[in-house]
Amino acid sequence: MEDIDAIAVLQDPVRRRLYEYVVAQGREVGRNEAAEAAGVARTLAAHHLDKLTGAGLLESGSRRLSGRSGPGAGRPAKVYVRARGERSVSLPARDYRTAAELLAEAAEQAGLDAGLCAAARRRGEALRGPAGPCGGLDEAVETLAARGYEPYREDVEGEAAGAVRMRNCPFHAVAESFPPLVCGMNLALLEGLLGTEGPVRARMDARPGECCVVVEAVEASV
Amino acid sequence: MTAPTRPVHLAQLNVARLRHPLDDPRVAPFVEALDPVNAAADGAPGFVWRLVEDGGADATGLRPLGDDVIVNLSVWETQEALWDFAYRSGHLEVMRQRRDWFHRHVEAHLVLWWVPAGHVPTVAEAVERLEDLRAHGPSPRAFTFASSYTAAEAAEHAPDGDSATV
């Protein structure tokens, strides 16, 4: 399916709600759960979830959701996650990705990390505008969500200071090709965007499958 | 011709030319990161082996390519396992600061190649692979993350009787 056709599948409002719900969970979602979240009947949700899978926007698998196994555990339920592939449509046709890859390749070969990070930090500050540093983790979630990072809170029980992690890397393709360069650029951008003098800090703490940055609350000095 | 079903592992060599000696305070953050990052490698999923100098904790004392060039030689179960460690662990933060401690590379500085599972690559063998990559570009014998080859492709190209090659 062409990107434009796949994206057109999301025009249906129920489908779009289901897609957005599955994406936001960051894990496998069953039909019942998705139906409940979208406020529609299970059979309708199942129909639309399978349409989304057919369009390549979701991937489906089967799993026993009850936790039971063996005889009597029942039929495995169908579960859905976001498909890994990227979809985009540009009218008229634009190809910023090739430009980004070429610029990154040249920057990597010339060792321009410091200059790139300085530019990223300035851009982050410009995006923040006249506002002061990010005031807390809830505000960080809002700011990061607006830039497509898909943030979520990761608070450890018993610890006052929490953290924000991000499911999505907006620079995924170039970050995979030139990780230290582009991940360093991303960290500098977020430092500029959130500030380094306020109550939260961006820090590199890479994990498989997520953005390499974690945003943490600075422990209040006692 | 080797059957592609034979178990294989991925060997990697990377080299870095130091801006300052390891006892210089300007590279102290790198030296401080060595033990925790090496410990993370040893515990990483898919880690098989890494070169350690006799009586040492790492390979930074070995200088087979020049007094100011440190080497890192390791073996992994899969290319994905190596990639996740290199770029999706605490190792990435060290990589991010690489320009502070190492000179920019003019030639290839990382080489990957397939070895039979259980084979422990020697430094000489690793250097040979790096030279192969530098002289001939990526091939099934010596490749990079950006231009990788499968073990089956490597097996097809292996000369008969070369026991150190898949």
From TrEMBL, chain A:
This is Putative ArsR family transcriptional regulator. The lineage of its organism: Bacteria, Bacillati, Actinomycetota, Actinomycetes, Kitasatosporales.
TrEMBL record, chain B:
Residues 10-147 form the DUF3291 domain. It comes from the Bacteria. InterPro entries: Dimeric_a/b-barrel, DUF3291. This is DUF3291 domain-containing protein.
